Amino acid sequence: MFDKIVKFFISPMGFIVIPLSIMLISAFKKYNNYLDIRKILKEQYKIFENNISALIIIYILPSIIAIGITRIKFIDVEIVNNINVVLSILTAMFFSIMSIIINFENENSENYKKTINETNNTIMFEILLCVFILICTFIYMFIEKIENTIILGIVSFTIYYLSIVVLINIFIVMKRMHILYENKRK
Known about the structure:
Helix content: over 70%
Number of domains: 1
Distance between the termini: 69 Å
Number of helices: 7
Radius of gyration: 19 Å
Order of helices and strands: HHHHHHH
Structural class: mainly alpha
Shape: globular
Low-confidence stretches: none
Largest sheet: none
Mean pLDDT: 84
């Protein structure tokens, strides 16, 4: 048993899994001053705390869709390449939208400030999801030749699920940007 653990630690997979696990654990650490993923997730879900149906539509139903897509087709190199191209475009777009939001004039309305904060947090959440999808696509590139369908299925489901959530959240950003532009026009 000890030999298997040592072999895993010195294997190429061990050199990937162990540092990624440590990084992931530290990213969710409370009071982290350089990676505050917990705060982004907490603020994102706070938006939906009084609307369970929206939470189900935006985060639960995509898992069912991702299961269906995964059962139809596991992720492959062509899909990963297309997702990476789209991720590059979306991430650049999200950073551009954030710079636009920063330049909005501060209005005294509490509702307007709340909308700006929620929009900003949703965009940060989208960027976070894009980074997670990118990490999953890197993982796929390493396990592509592995015949273990369970691992491939989990990675496929994760990539599909996060991609669908990103696409749905784009509609949230669009709605909030519309509200902000309408208020700015007045």
